[in-house]
Amino acid sequence: MKKYIQRAKVLVEALPYIKKFNGDIVVIKYGGSAMVDEAIKISVIQDIVLMKLVGLKPVIVHGGGKEISNMLSKIGKESKFIDGLRVTDDETVQVAEMVLSGKVNKDIVQLIENHDINAVGISGKDGKTLKVAKKEVAGYDIGYVGEITKVNTGLVETLLENEYIPVIAPIGTDDNGDTYNINADYAASSIAGALSAEKLVFLTDVEGILRDIDDSASLISRIDVSEVPNYIDQGVISGGMIPKAECCASGIHKGVKSVHILDGRVEHSLLLEIFTKSGVGTMFYGA
Ligand SMILES: Nc1ncnc2c1ncn2[C@@H]1O[C@H](COP(=O)(O)OP(=O)(O)O)[C@@H](O)[C@H]1O
Ligand SMILES: CC(=O)N[C@@H](CCC(=O)OP(=O)(O)O)C(=O)O
């Protein structure tokens, strides 16, 4: 009963804001812990379905790093990361594609379709959506890791026009047709920029950007993107949050109106951030 009351409160608070976003594209990066727990997964998908039902156009770009690592360990392969990017040899890129494009992508599609809403799962290979070049990292060869050079939005736009929710796996190809593994944060920010999305939302496993990582009360609710490099230099933003915050900044620079980092583990955080004035996570904005 408590749960229903909480849900009703979320909806009542959200209602006055809903029509303002009619028809806008909202890109959601879904990954990390928020994607591992089954109950959380179902609740996130419910929120995305609600967004679709009220006339928004959600586009899901998903990760699945933990699932790739689990599958690699099953075949006796250890996962290695440089600057938050998986070192991806020939065997690893095949596993990454199978896990992301096959398992994770289709699981999300099915969860959406359980609500009688149509979804189509693609990877960046389909419709040449994500074209990449090999990512160069000084001092290392990280293998088949792609840096996005072009987003071809044709297929995704066709799906949106036909009322499907596109679900995109971060796999792309280079000019030779070789397959590359792409960090899902970068994929989401490039796709949101190319679609001129109204909003880009990163669902992760913390409340947002915290001044003190051990104190959830230190949440920074709004960040001007010009402040991001300072926060990184001061060590406030560190580790896996560095690429995410950089993606938030680049989303704004590419023309996305607002970018949000939210705790995907908290029920309805997506609805609260999108549809209420106060919001719950960190919102990035441009000058
Ligand atoms: N200032 C900060 N605020 C919040 N989280 C931070 C901060 N600096 C570093 N982090 C770390 O970044 C992590 C999120 O990045 P990451 O694990 O790569 O997310 P995901 O797997 O969802 O893509 C948090 O769990 C936290 O440990
Ligand atoms: C190059 C690179 O690191 N690719 C990522 C792709 C998946 C991902 O980004 O998943 P999360 O968002 O769940 O972390 C990887 O192999 O883990």
UniProtKB/TrEMBL annotation:
Its EC number is 2.7.2.8. Signal peptide: none annotated. Pathway: Amino-acid biosynthesis; L-arginine biosynthesis; N(2)-acetyl-L-ornithine from L-glutamate: step 2/4. It is found in: Cytoplasm. Substrate binds at G64, G65, R86, N181. GO terms for cellular component: cytoplasm. The record marks K29, K244 as: Transition state stabilizer. GO terms for molecular function: acetylglutamate kinase activity; ATP binding. Keywords: Amino-acid biosynthesis, Arginine biosynthesis, ATP-binding, Cytoplasm, Kinase, Nucleotide-binding, Transferase. InterPro entries: AceGlu_kinase-like_sf, AcgluKinase_fam, ArgB, Asp/Glu/Uridylate_kinase, Glu/AcGlu_kinase, NAGK-C. The keyword Ion transport does not apply. Belongs to the acetylglutamate kinase family. ArgB subfamily. NCBIfam families: argB. It comes from the Bacteria. This is Acetylglutamate kinase. GO terms for biological process: L-arginine biosynthetic process via ornithine. It is an enzyme of class 2 (transferase). Catalyzes the ATP-dependent phosphorylation of N-acetyl-L-glutamate. Pfam families: AA_kinase (PF00696). Residues 25-263 form the Aspartate/glutamate/uridylate kinase domain. It catalyses: N-acetyl-L-glutamate + ATP = N-acetyl-L-glutamyl 5-phosphate + ADP.
